[in-house]
UniProtKB/TrEMBL annotation:
It comes from the Eukaryota. Its main location: cytoplasm. It comes from Collichthys lucidus (Big head croaker). GO terms for biological process: inflammatory response; positive regulation of DNA-templated transcription; positive regulation of epidermal growth factor receptor signaling pathway; positive regulation of interleukin-8 production; regulation of interleukin-6 production; regulation of mitotic cell cycle. GO terms for molecular function: SH2 domain binding; SH3 domain binding. This is Actin filament-associated protein 1-like 2. Keywords: Coiled coil, Cytoplasm, Repeat. InterPro entries: AFAP. The keyword Coiled coil applies. It is found in: Cytoplasm. GO terms for cellular component: cytosol.
């Protein structure tokens, strides 16, 4: 058992917490898809998305959906930003 803030946490509890953390991260990434982000934030979001996807794949998660990233750098969009980012779930 591992100590966390003075409490003993079993491995099953750790897994539940990690699963919840990953689900909340996924939801947050979906929220960010609807936001206009700076170039740095877009890159960081992409890195987090890739890490989340890699983690799920490496754990043999039998996912029906996978998170996809699309970054467009170039021309100005309606908000005069040079970077556009969209993410979506794609059925495998």
């Amino acid at each position: 058992m591992e100590k966390h803030k003075g409490l003993a946490i079993s491995q099953s509890q750790q897994k539940k917490v990690l699963d919840q953390l990953l689900m909340e991260l996924h939801r947050f990434l979906l929220i960010l898809d609807k936001e206009t982000l700076s170039g740095n934030a877009t890159v960081q979001k992409g890195l987090l998305s890739d890490l989340l996807q890699s983690y799920r794949a490496s754990n043999g998660a039998d996912e029906e959906y996978i998170y996809m990233n699309k970054v467009i750098v170039g021309g100005k969009d309606k908000n005069n930003k040079g970077v556009s980012f969209t993410g979506f779930l794609s059925k495998v």
